[in-house]
DNA sequence: TGGGGTTAT
DNA sequence: ATAACCC
């Protein structure tokens, strides 16, 4: 149904396609270095975005929920909902009361425990890694995959008569004509076919539906993946990239420009993508710093050279709980114990060992709503060693450490009012922390010189809490 | 606004 | 340790 046949070469480039198509691209070209032979190699990137992920996981857990308007609730918020609920006016991050008012039949399930979502999320990433190992996670429900190599391999397998029959899978953004003589088009079409295979595999093996966007970089792939929504895919051909980015109504919609930067841009009179494109680079650099300024101004042109960075296993494990009020040490200790118990189970399953522990709090305040404070310290090595086994004997000493961190942040002799507690285990190392006794010990600079010489190693720069 | 994550400074 | 970004 989404299938569209590639247009004949003569028709290609009816609008703006004339410019980029020429640069000497024979279909047999091998090395991905097309744009005239200079500049960065052209990539093929796919962004995979699951449809209302938490709601999908809940409907798999309990099939009776299918077909009903479903919301996933955390505290007093509906954090996400299925499409039945959306049709009836429920929005993401809507207040539970507003949602129930809009949609009295709304079924709510509690989604504060992320365990099943996290597990399913990694199954998706692992499935995508089977296609190509270069997979970058973005949250629990989005992944980028660099398809450049896979596409090249497939093209080398193609016979010339198959090439003329190449078709796109899914939508073509802006309904742009496909030029089968344009190697960039060809490669993106192959990318669209791989994207379709990925979505098929996700559905067949995991029962999950989602969208995909195929383009020449992460920014464009992400933007184009959301064009046709649920369970569809779209490919962006280079000649339509300006149409895509100009379709954004505000710079805040550009991934990479967040709340703070958008506010600062607005203060400069910049609100549209065009405003940002045409704003003085010099002034922008002075206002935002050269790094942010250059990066976001490139984004405004649809340029994004950031690589797809393989996420691999997580860098940290954290659990948090928010509440209206927590104002005594006993309450704090109880909450911390709960958070830590779950974390120890997770870290145990992972196999690696955290070498740093952090406590994060949010204090009650009328204005400054989002700000958090944290304290961290190294985990004593005798505790690290016991981590894999029965964690009963580590929970008490770790809670003691966390309470010290807490008292370092909060003067418990004075009244306090917290609205969030979070514990984070990070600085994860693969079991053998010290390579002492191995040949690596003498070959690893940070171990064999810096650490032993008594100088501060860059690997050991945790803040020191007296224990 | 929840309950997570990441990287840069 | 914080601040920014992402979901």
Write a structural description.
- The chain has 467 residues and is of the alpha+beta class.
- It has helices at residues 18-21, 53-61, 83-87, 96-102, 115-131, 148-157, 160-163, 183-206, 218-225, 241-246, 259-267, 273-278, 281-288, 290-300, 329-350, 381-386, 392-409, 439-443, 445-451; strands spanning 45-50, 70-74, 77-81, 94-95, 107-110, 135-138, 142-146, 171-172, 210-215, 233-235, 316-326, 353-363, 373-378, 418-429.
- The strands form three sheets. A six-stranded mixed β-sheet has the order 6-7-1-9-10-8. A four-stranded mixed β-sheet has the order 4-3-2-5.
- A hairpin with a 3-residue loop joins β6 and β7 (142-146).
- α5 packs across α8, α6 crosses α8 and α15 (329-350) packs across α17 (392-409).
- The protein is globular, with a radius of gyration of 26 Å.
- The N and C termini lie far apart (65 Å).
- The protein binds a DNA duplex (9 and 7 nucleotides) through residues 53, 73-77, 79, 93-95, 111-114, 117-118, 137-142, 255-261, 291-292, 311, 314-316, 318-322, 358, 369-376, 420, 422, 463.
Provide a concise account of the structure shown.
The chain is of the alpha+beta class. Helix content is 40%, strand content 18%. α15 crosses α17 (392-409).
Give the proportion of residues in helices: 25-40%
The radius of gyration over CA amounts to 26 Å
Shape: globular
Strand order of the largest sheet: 6-7-1-9-10-8
The total count of strands amounts to: 14
Largest sheet: 6 strands, mixed
Question: Given the helix and strand composition, which structural class is it?
Answer: alpha+beta
Mean pLDDT: 87
Low-pLDDT regions: 1-30, 435-467
| Total helical elements | 19
Q: CA-to-CA gap between the ends?
A: 65 Å
Strand content: 15-25%
């Amino acid at each position: 149904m989404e299938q569209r046949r590639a247009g004949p070469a003569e028709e290609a480039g009816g609008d703006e396609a004339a410019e980029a198509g020429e640069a000497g691209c024979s279909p047999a070209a091998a090395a991905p270095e097309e744009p005239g032979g200079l500049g960065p190699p052209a990539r093929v990137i796919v962004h995979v975005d699951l449809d209302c992920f938490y709601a999908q996981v809940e409907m798999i857990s309990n099939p009776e929920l299918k077909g009903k308007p479903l919301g996933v609730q955390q505290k007093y918020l509906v954090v996400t909902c299925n499409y039945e609920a959306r049709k009836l006016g429920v929005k993401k991050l809507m207040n539970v009361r507003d949602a129930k008012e809009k949609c009295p039949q709304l079924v709510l399930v509690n989604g504060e425990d992320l365990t099943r979502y996290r597990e399913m999320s990694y199954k998706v990433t692992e499935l995508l890694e089977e296609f190509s190992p270069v997979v970058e996670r973005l949250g629990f429900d989005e992944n980028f995959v660099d398809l450049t190599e896979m596409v090249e391999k497939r093209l080398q397998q193609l016979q010339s008569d198959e090439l003329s029959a190449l078709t796109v899978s899914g939508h073509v953004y802006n309904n742009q004509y496909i030029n089968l003589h344009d190697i960039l088009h060809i490669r993106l079409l192959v990318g669209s076919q791989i994207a379709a295979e990925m979505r098929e595999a996700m559905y067949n093996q995991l029962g999950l539906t989602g969208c995909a966007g195929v383009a020449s970089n992460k920014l464009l792939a992400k933007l184009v993946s959301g064009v046709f929504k649920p369970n569809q895919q779209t490919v962006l051909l280079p000649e339509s990239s300006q149409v895509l980015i100009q379709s954004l109504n505000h710079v805040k919609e550009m991934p990479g420009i967040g709340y703070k930067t958008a506010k600062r841009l607005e203060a400069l009179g910049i609100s549209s993508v065009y405003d940002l494109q045409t704003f003085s680079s010099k002034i922008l650099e002075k206002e935002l710093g050269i790094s942010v300024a250059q990066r976001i101004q490139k984004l405004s042109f649809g340029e994004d050279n950031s690589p797809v960075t393989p996420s691999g296993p997580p860098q940290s494990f954290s659990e948090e709980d928010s509440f209206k009020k927590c104002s005594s040490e006993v309450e704090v200790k109880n909450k911390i114990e709960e958070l830590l118990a779950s974390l120890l189970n997770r870290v145990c399953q992972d196999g690696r060992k955290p070498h740093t522990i952090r406590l994060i709090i949010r204090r009650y305040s009328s204005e400054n709503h989002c700000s958090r404070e944290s304290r961290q310290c190294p985990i004593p090595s005798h505790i690290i060693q016991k981590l894999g086994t029965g964690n009963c004997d580590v929970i008490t000493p770790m809670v003691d450490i966390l309470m010290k961190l807490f008292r370092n942040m909060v003067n418990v002799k004075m009244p306090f009012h917290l609205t969030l507690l979070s514990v984070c285990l990070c600085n994860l190392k693969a079991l053998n922390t010290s390579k002492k006794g191995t040949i690596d010990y003498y070959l690893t600079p940070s171990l064999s010189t810096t650490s032993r010489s008594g100088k501060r190693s860059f690997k050991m720069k945790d803040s020191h809490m007296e224990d």
